[in-house]
Amino acid sequence: xxxxxxxxxxxxxxxxxxxxxxxxxxxxxxxxxxxxxxxxxxxxxxxxxxxxxxxxxxxxxxxxxxxxxxxxxxxxxxxxxxxxxxxxxxxxxxxxxxxxxxxxxxxxxxxxxxxxxxxxxxxxxxxxxxxxxxxxxxxxxxxxxxxxxxxxxxxxxxxxxxxxxxxxxxxxxxxxxxxxxxxxxxxxxxxxxxxxxxxxxxxxxxxxxxxxxxxxxxxxxxxxxxxxxxxxxxxxxxxxxxxxxxxxxxxxxxxxxxxxxxxxxxxxxxxxxxxxxxxxxxxxxxxxxxxxxxxxxxxxxxxxxxxxxxxxxxxxxxxxxxxxxxxxxxxxxxxxxxxxxxxxxxxxxxxxxxxxxxxxxxxxxxxxxxxxxxxxxxxxxxxxxxxxxxxxxxxxxxxxxxxxxxxxxxxxxxxxxxxx
Length: 420
Hints:
Blueprint: E1 2-6, H1 9-12, E2 23-27, H2 35-61, E3 76-78, H3 82-100, E4 104-106, H4 109-118, H5 129-140, H6 151-157, H7 161-167, H8 185-199, E5 207-211, H9 217-226, E6 229-234, H10 237-246, E7 252-256, E8 266-272, H11 283-293, E9 294-307, H12 316-321, H13 331-338, E10 343-349, H14 352-367, H15 369-372, H16 378-396, E11 400-408
Parallel strand pairs: 5-6, 5-8, 6-7, 8-9
Antiparallel strand pairs: 1-2, 3-4, 9-11, 10-11
Helix pairs in contact: 2-3, 3-16, 4-16, 8-9, 11-13, 14-16
């Protein structure tokens, strides 16, 4: 026979304020107010709560065909039961951080995220308070103002050129490749660069502005193959240093500056994978800068990741660990910024190609890890793997896209004939 008693902690504080209330079952012959009895009861309650959290997570994953401790590549293996509470209370941020800390694993993270995102069930997980705060902050502040713009360069692109040299292709192109007729990462990236040059109708001696030039891959290709002069701008010191070294001897200038600080005029303006860092409050400013720098009969190319739903902030784990203050634009956001400024001559989507690109980067990263392991720790390795494979799964699920827009100030007389 069992009896229910309130905890004496309510009166005497014998277990401290952290145990503000305890209800437990004891044998009638046992002292109901002993510390041992209450601790046992609290332990039992915690175990039941953990079991309930696991069941909740299992139910949430079921529509995506994902099992906890399952035997398929996309199933998750949980090593620490605290994982369940973190995911339920912190959502995607908790999932990413617990993976970094080794609380769970998955043989095929890319397939896990593909299944998760394809079913839309990630919305069932609660946002963390950090994410709620970030949404409010993004609405009030300009997180990508000129004074704050260099943070992403310092956090992401200045991690070390050794990492990117081993992960990317020989030209160090850090954006989606074009796999239409390509078999390797090298071929896919060169095909993308040539596609951009042909869409921009480049001709010898044209002046080209490359906004967010990275390590100078596009600038060098355009100068080599099309005989143009290029000015590249970046906010990353690491990128600028290596880009100058790689582009030496060519008609290429690499400037360490924000795009808003450019005031020269060019025949063509291109931006490849940089617009995601502009921030929705600066989309119109970006378009004004491009228009200011572009001659009246010029063309501009905007190459960017895009999403099908308008948001003002990115996924919380990505925002904290990978791209601080980033934002992936929607069709509406880009359209609003273009209105009254440019004619859209062409809008091309090949987002599915980013899946293949990201998987190639992930393979390179793992294959060359031993060469850079002394410069990074295991937590970084798991973080970077999570970033690449989460992104691949997102592209495979078609939650994010890759867009190339060709823009002209007044419209090409007689029409623009695009290429693919």
